[in-house]
Every structure is written in structure tokens, then in C-alpha cells.
Amino acid sequence: MMSATALLQAAQQIKLFIMDVDGVLTDGRIFIRDNGEEIKAFHTLDGHGLKMLHRHGIQTAIITGRDAPSVGIRVQQLGIQHYFKGITDKRSCYQQLLQQLELGEQQCAYIGDDVVDLPVMRHCGLTIAVPNAHAQVLQHADYVTRAQGGAGAVREVCDLLLDAQGFLAAEMAEYLA
After folding, report:
1. What does the alpha-carbon distance between residue 28 and residue 24 come to, in Å, rounded to a whole number?
2. Which of 65, 84, 70 is nearest to 42 (CA)?
């Protein structure tokens, strides 16, 4: 875990926020209908936080090992710029994304919950886990959200990034006027 000062300094540098899906944007449960259709629940707080990031030039990405149509729909709804599904080698995907965007590792934040996220998390400037993440993931996280995955954890990170970069007060002023 980082000190509050180090966390703020790391968050100030972030230009790309990368997320896993199951267990982060969702609570990790997968509902499967008799016809094989997967159903996932997403939290609206997370969605609004991501839209605020986009307004301030912070790009967002999803790197997920699964390929669920509902995630693609949510990606489109939220305007997430970079979506990689069915990825078995998350680190290679991450490295290609950094090259494409011409970003350094210190400019990236990643939120995950399971060991498959560690190959990326260990190479980001800011690593985040949800509180119910696997023990190894918690051990490697710079920050652990108070909110569970699927219950506003991503929004918590969005607010952290916006606050560190001086944008949160202006975003909130719109609603407090």
C-alpha cells in the first residue's frame, strides 16, 4: 500500500485507466440463462465516473479474458475507448496498448481482482484492487477500494483520479449549484 502522498502523486500522472470486468465492474457473479446467455449487472456510479474521466482527457480501457456481449454493449454506452475481450495474455495486450498510445507505465492505472490481473498490475504506475480480491492481488495493490467490485469501486477510483488531477471540484460544482 502507498502512503497518501505517494498515492496522490501517482494518481496525478494517470492518463489511462484500465479495468478488468468480472469482479471489478461487476460483483464477479455470472448469471447464465438456459439458452446460454450471460447476464451481468453494472453499477451506474461507475458509469458516470468513467464519463467524467473522459471529459478530462483520461482514457479508459478494458482488458478481459471473457467475451460477453453485455460487456460490449456497456463499453459502447460508456464510450470506453479501448476494449480487449477474450484476452489470455493481458500483459502483452497492455504493452501493445501502451505502445499504441505512446504512454509510459507510470501513466497507467489498473484495477483488478484476481491473479490473472497481476501481470499487468505489476507494471503500472498505480495498481488498485477491490477489497474482496484474491490475497495475492491485495498484496500487490497500491490502493484497495472501500467499495466492492460491482458496487461503485470503479467510481471510487475515478473520483480519486479526478481529485488528484484537480478536476473533481469542478465536476461536483455542477451538481451543487
Report:
1. 7
2. 70
pLDDT digits (tens, 9 = 90+) for 118-157: 999 999 999 999 999 999 999 999 999 999 999 999 999 9
What is the per-residue burial (b if ≥16 Cβ within 10 Å, else e) of 18-53?
bbbbbbbbbbbeeeeeeeeeeebebbebbbebbbbb
d(C-alpha 128, C-alpha 107), whole Å: 14
Pairing status of strand 38-39 against strand 59-63: unpaired
Cβ distance 145 to 159 under 8 Å?
Answer: no
**Calpha distance 79→59 (Å, rounded):** 10
Query: Does the model's pTM come out above 0.90?
Result: yes
Q: Is 143 strand, coil or helix?
A: strand
